[in-house]
Amino acid sequence: MTATDAPAGISLRPFYCPVPEAVHPHVAEVERGALAWVDRIGLAADDEARKRLLRTRSADFFSRFAPCADEDGLQIAVRWVYWGFLFDDRRCDAGRFSDDPLAFPPMAASVQRAVDAPWCEAVDDRYARAVQDIVRSMYELRTPTQARRFADAHRGWLFAVAWQVANRARGHMPDLDDYTAMRLHTCGGGPTIALLEIANGPEVPGAEMDSPAVRALTEMAILIAAWDNDLHSYDKEFREDNTDQNLANVLAHHRRLHPDEAVAEAVRLRDRVMTRFLRLREAVAARPVSGALRTYLDGLGHAIRGNIDWALSSPRYRGLVNPGWADEPSDDNPDPLPLPTIAWWWDDL
């Protein structure tokens, strides 16, 4: 299909997300502080890069994930979100590394080393230097366990992007199960969700954070947001005849679906995960758990809702039309999705 063959556009379906909208009251102050840091650390190489950063509205983004956060912790989280959006745009989704499976891993390894050991001498790379400064702040303000959780999630993100780059370089469209496993990490959701502890403060005890139920809830929140982002961007990508890796493109390619049919199926898959998330979160919250875990579970819900609210007003998605909110899921089938990589989410956790 060529761009001239494309229909007027692909309409978004209403979002099912029965979580109320929320945003941190000091978002403007946090944004000013983060942008001052961007300028001081030299993250933006030129005016165009700084304008790109401003368009991400990163402070608004994470202030919706952590509406009750400690302001100092929120400042650290927002700095990384600015960093993450620019790094993703320049080195993961576009640029000379984005389709070179030989060049991306050593570059990513150098950046990850700055995250793993923020006290080592940084390489001559503005991204490595900037993220090193961010992670040092995590160790100064929060616990080593929280900083290490972030570093581990960051490594998972870069590993998955290397997988995505390899697919892109060979023109490979993964099947739905492989795409789901990959998308859990390529969206950057792991480190972004790890920032909830950094922003809010309390450390979730390891026995709770590493339990199968909480791990499943964390992955569900990440995947819902990732699939939502796929839906947010699909109309623009379709208009531009962009057939890169995206949930709707994967469904259209492997199931021979029309784009509108692929979007409808994507929404059904997404709503089934959302339904399972709500049910399992309610069950876990009913158990005798720590206050830190309750704060974290609330944050997962805010992350799903906040990601949608941010996207609907973000220049990043270029005038996305708000489709409204659905009172019920498009598919409330309680059975596991037939995807081996995530079917365990429906186990008795």
Automatic annotation (TrEMBL):
E.C. number(s) listed in UniProt: 4.2.3.-
Keyword Magnesium attached: yes
KW Transport (keyword) present: no
Pfam family, one: Terpene_syn_C_2
Keywords: Lyase, Magnesium, Metal-binding
Cofactor list: Mg(2+)
Enzyme class label: lyase
Highest taxon above the source species: Bacteria
Family: Belongs to the terpene synthase family.
Protein name in the entry: Terpene synthase
Organism of origin: Saccharothrix xinjiangensis
